[in-house]
Design brief:
Shape: rod-shaped
Order of helices and strands: HHH
Number of strands: 0
Bound molecules: zinc ion
Strand content: under 5%
Number of helices: 3
Largest sheet: none
Oligomer: single chain
């Protein structure tokens, strides 16, 4: 990355130019590692879906537990 004002080379993630102190563009603030992660969208989507499934299953299990608890209490 280079500074827009003085053209000095800046490190990725830098918010201010080391040479002239000018504020760098938002693009420079994005770390290259984040871009790498974004290049693999399929893996992220799959993990998100599995997370939703796990949350849904846990929700159903807790609902069943509550229903059983209520019925047991009502029978007594
Ligand atoms: Zn500069």
């Amino acid at each position: 990355m280079k500074c827009d004002k003085c053209g000095a080379t800046t490190n990725p993630g830098d918010q201010i130019c080391i040479n002239c102190g000018a504020k760098l563009s938002i693009e420079n603030m994005i770390m290259p590692e984040v871009e790498k992660v974004n290049n693999i969208p399929n893996k992220k989507e799959i993990s998100k879906e599995t997370l939703y499934i796990v949350i849904a299953v846990l929700g159903v299990i807790s609902l069943v537990c509550i229903v059983i608890l209520i019925t047991v209490l009502l029978v007594r």
